Amino acid sequence: MLKPKVLAGLSGGVDSSVAALQLQQQGYKVSGLFMKNWVDFAEESECTIAEDRLDAKNVASTLGISFYEANFAEDYWDHVFQHFLKEYEAGRTPNPDILCNREIKFKVFLDYALSVGNHFIATGHYARIWRSDDGLYHLLKGKDNNKDQSYFLYTLGQKQLSYTLFPLGDLEKTEVRKIAAKAKFSNYNKKDSTGICFIGERRFKDFLSRYLLNKPGEIRTPKGEIVSYHEGLMYYTLGQRQGLGIGGHKNGNGLPWYVVSKQLATNTLYVAQDKEHPWLQSQRVNANELHWVAGQSPILPFSCTAKTRYRQPDQSCTLTQITSDSIEVIFDTPQRAVTPGQAIVFYKNEECLGGGTITTTDAPGRAL
């Protein structure tokens, strides 16, 4: 009997490396693909692409599997990065990791893998897939609560899940590093990647200013008092504390300042010395660009839980219909710093049902 062929995405990190090893030990015929999705010649010396590629190649050599490379940079620019810039320009805070998963890892990469004769793709995501007796694929949280990545995967549908394997779904991160060390992977203790998907870590303000024009404006308190000036609303997000540059304002009380509102119409940033300021509290949230893993929404109204940011504990809520592609989410208790442009993802116990993009909330001060 022929072994199923799996193309594993090898990023050079420990998670994707152990995912490939797990599949090999389970009897799959595994090969590895290193994807280059970001090209910025002005920063080539600062990038870790060469190091990541070498780590991925070394893992493939240790496993004795074929190693391939592909450049999807044009797709990334057209379908992820351009959207990323437009959202920031519109005053919202996008989540490129979610779009990157939808457009690159589980679309371009999947299509590529199937076109060259593979039966599945595999990644190092901490999530699980379960196929019920009725043939429906379900996306479940990873067993490691601290690493569960289902929040970033809510845009996957039945086709993607039917061709995808998540070998780390039942593992804890500590166990993954132990497996990597035992396998003598050179990257077993490599730091987890952070920053923008496929672009990596860098000074965010400097990076963004290369693509978007700065639009300086006033920083005011909710009472209207000018306390400082900002370089552009795109550099700030709701609830942010660091990098405001306000310091010891003469009328301040010595407590930290937090971003509580961004007003695009007047180009004004509002701040307050209260981490739980009323302007940061939302109980009703509207969302559009909805996606349901099962291919259709549950019957609304529907009670479930939701996250408005990664690693947030599940929050009880009720979903109600507004239009065919928009819903209102009514939380049982107010939520802090719910941010337009970010994802809201819905769960029923361990199952990720789907999600959407936050458009508006009922937080005071959002429309002055």
TrEMBL record:
GO terms assigned for molecular function: ATP binding; methyltransferase activity; tRNA binding; tRNA-uridine 2-sulfurtransferase activity
Region (Interaction with tRNA): 147-149, 309-310
Localization (cell): Cytoplasm
Chain ranges of the tRNA-specific 2-thiouridylase MnmA-like central domain: 205-273
Family, per entry: Belongs to the MnmA/TRMU family.
Function description: Catalyzes the 2-thiolation of uridine at the wobble position (U34) of tRNA, leading to the formation of s(2)U34.
Name of the protein in question: tRNA-specific 2-thiouridylase MnmA
Protein source organism: Candidatus Nitrosacidococcus tergens
Gene name, Swiss-Prot/TrEMBL: trmU
